[in-house]
Design a protein that fits this description.
The chain is of the alpha/beta class. The protein contains 14 helices and 20 strands.
């Protein structure tokens, strides 16, 4: 290597820093890798440790015996163990290494004004923004408990700018790909001079080094000690809340000294209790930016709605409710407990209006149907919980048929209710829980929303 060149490859440094990658994910020559390994700039470690089936995957942290398997490996010519938990990201085996960077951290020279945003924060947003910035600067933990439609994204701007000005690296992680795709252009507009990567399955930015990373939680399996500020959006959402390997991935991706910011409208009961007892630092935004109260769900008896569907008819209270919306031209989002019931119900609703549609997670026309709803072409959209969060329709009423079903947890019902009244142009909306007996989750969701409205009134954050 010439004396005029750096001792190590900056391209390889940027590719590997803060990551654990398979050799197949590193587009550099074996000779270059060997030279860097010899000088101690990169490190090799076994991808899976332990004796089958009592193993641990060094990439995703999986230790569940049923998620390991043995296969005849063409690479080593022997039987090798692989991890099934993170298989979708490339096979980690016991005979192939994971490669990480152990040399100097990449240098970064932030612009004087990283944030280019001329918007205004509401009073509630300002308090939360200050709390987030303080946590970022002090490398502390903070929960932002904000109602649906409060404008959580905007309250992150000043904290992210503070982290970047200090030379820090920031990650915003979310369980869902569509949130990454929605956030990426927004952050590129307000941080135009900062390198930003959007990471999800099949992303073209997968190996791009960036100061600000927007990532699904699954993509964090590849990272280790990479970020100075870790922001987790929708911390209560599936699958993150049920998958310990994703929670470990978030911790592993953060540096030892790191700010942890969590965002949600619906903290779990443990976190809510910790907040009330002063055991968890948190800030609330109990009102939306347009200063109107959250729509409080009304509960309506629907009789044995399940039996009605099975017999080929709509429950009368539900039919009357939908007919009224069709008569006055008010779009409606109507939630049902599962796909089977939705398929039974759809032709019954279509008798009321031929343009009524249904959508679910595996629907190949999901994006097109949501697009028609946004365009005002669909009067009523039947859906499963797939649309409980992450979508905004400007002027809708919302109903849940079978709200007592176990699939509708308190968090799910609060999120569903949060679809109504989000727009400043249409800040009100009706939310109705049709039921065959009230569940505890229904009552808790109604109390949750009412409590947020009451707190907002006390703080002077809403106009009646």
């Amino acid at each position: 290597m010439s004396l005029n060149l750096p001792a190590f490859s900056e391209e390889l440094q940027h590719h590997l820093f803060g990551r654990k990658l398979l050799k197949s994910e590193i587009p550099f020559s074996p000779e270059l890798l060997e030279m860097h390994k010899k000088h101690g700039w990169i490190h090799y470690e076994q991808g899976i440790r332990g004796e089958f089936p009592n193993c641990i995957c060094l990439r995703c942290g999986n230790q569940e015996a049923h998620l390991f398997a043995v296969f005849p490996c063409a690479h080593c010519g022997k039987s090798s163990v692989y991890c099934r938990n993170c298989l979708m990201m490339g096979r980690v085996t016991s005979c192939r290494p994971l490669v990480s960077w152990t040399g100097p951290e990449p240098a970064f020279h932030p612009p004087a004004q990283p944030l280019q945003w001329e918007g205004m924060l509401s009073e509630g947003q300002q308090a939360a923004s200050k709390a987030v910035m303080d946590a970022v600067l002090k490398k502390k933990e903070m929960l932002v408990w904000a109602v649906c439609g409060a404008g959580k994204t905007e309250i992150l701007f000043n904290g992210i700018e503070a982290a970047i000005k200090n030379g820090g690296r920031v990650c915003i992680a979310t369980p869902r790909t569509d949130v990454v795709l929605e956030l990426a252009p927004r952050f590129r507009r307000v941080f135009p001079d900062i390198s930003i990567a959007a990471l999800y399955g099949g992303s073209p930015d997968r190996y791009k080094w960036a100061q600000l990373v927007l990532s699904t939680t699954h993509q964090l399996y590849r990272f280790k000690a990479a970020f100075d500020t870790m922001i987790v959006d929708e911390v209560d959402a599936f699958p993150y809340t049920y998958d310990e390997t994703l929670q470990r991935a978030v911790k592993k991706a953060a540096k030892e000294s790191c700010a942890h910011i969590y965002l949600t409208a619906t903290p779990n009961e443990t976190w809510q209790r910790e907040c009330r007892k002063g055991l968890r630092p948190f800030v609330t935004i109990p009102a939306r930016y347009h200063r109107r109260p959250l729509p409080v769900p009304e509960m309506k008896w629907a009789g044995n709605w399940r039996k009605a569907f099975e017999k080929g008819r709509l429950p009368r209270p539900v039919e009357a409710w939908v007919k009224h919306r069709l008569d006055v031209g008010k779009q409606t989002l109507l939630f049902l407990p599962n796909i089977r019931l939705m398929k039974i119900a759809e032709p019954l609703f279509k008798k009321l209006h031929p343009d009524i549609e249904s959508v679910h997670a595996e629907d190949p026309e999901r994006k097109e149907k949501v697009g028609r709803m946004r365009a005002g072409k669909t009067p009523v959209l039947l859906t499963t919980t797939i649309l409980e969060r992450g979508v905004t329709f400007p002027n809708i009423d919302v109903a849940v048929v079978g709200a007592e079903d176990a699939i509708f947890t308190e968090a799910a019902l609060v999120q569903i209710a949060g679809r109504a009244g989000r727009s400043a142009d249409f800040p009100t909306g009706v939310v109705t829980f049709f039921h065959y007996g009230r569940s505890q989750a229904m009552v808790k969701a109604q109390r949750h929303i009412s409590a947020m409205n009451e707190e907002a009134r006390k703080r002077g954050l809403i106009d009646e």
